[in-house]
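As promised in the previous annual report, we have extended the structural survey to additional targets. Below is the entry for Cytochrome b5-like heme/steroid binding domain.
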Amino acid sequence: MPSTGNIDNTKESKLSDFKREYKFFFDGEEYDCTDYAKKHPAGEEFFWKQAAETNDLTSYFSALHSETAHKIIKSLPKTGRKQKIDPNVALYQHLHEKVKHLYPNNYVKDFLWFAFVTINFLLGCFAENKILAFICIINAQIVSGWICHSWAHGRDAFLYKFVNWYSPLVAGVSTRWWNRKHNLHHMFTNVFGKDEDIQHSYTRVLFGFLYLKWNFDSIMFDYKTKRVIPLILHFIFYFQQNIIIFLLAQYVAGFFSAHILIGNHEKEKNFEGKHGLDFIRHQLVTARDYDYHGLIWLCYMGGKQLDDLQQEIKDQDQKPGRHNGEEQIVEILYRNEND
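The corresponding structure token record, generated without further manual editing, is:
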């Protein structure tokens, strides 16, 4: 009988038997993220997808995380390895420091958005006038999606904790499910196989089911935990209203929001496999802004209309011989950084 060497035939080999190691550079120093990977809101999936793209997390991490999260990564074990900070990474860090004061916490504004959504949510649930209920459900679903999107990004510790129950209750969306999906979208925008927002087919009639699909995915993600309770309460509240009114309003809200979300990325550059771009270039070539102004558009488009950058890219594209405005924007940023 041939020897089996050190192979144990009594156990079936599984992929889970092999422990992956995740080591990334942040601010020029390498950290061992292996033990922390499963605790991360985006899950371990993020780490092995990121490892295939780059070993430097500095720009990506700074863009999506709070000061508290920075303390967490600094507390992880260091491997002792260091590397020179890439000029593109240094550029992003410089720009990040220059503009972050433009987005201070504004609790008055947050409270007004909270009041608007909550009032519309309650009227949508209990108003006897069906037209009023229809309009209020649409308002609550669309605007709650945008404000919970901002709060769940975790810049403010209080709002981040608050949105963990407010989002499933009012929007019907689990922040645990959303964080995993949305973080992957931001890190791997328009990368096939990594960005779950990319669809193989865009059929407009299905756009209206956006929020109902998110509701279902959220319940399936959280059904084994106590976090499913506010998701169930979401439907208990809304089912106090006429079911047809609720479903029609959800369809209209989803149809509108899906167009905003898809139009923001769908016609831009996409990638198969490793894209090789630094963070700034990747974000610029995979996204577009909307040229709309005013409070109403801010309310219903969630800040997707960043006019100055969009107009600057448009102007660059219209110059003779300029076919890639995004690259020109990067050049402008470099010049400003070096001035």
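The beta strands are 23-26, 29-32, 78-82, 191-192, 271-272. Residues 89 and 319 are 29 Å apart (CA to CA). These points will be discussed at the next consortium meeting with the crystallography subgroup.
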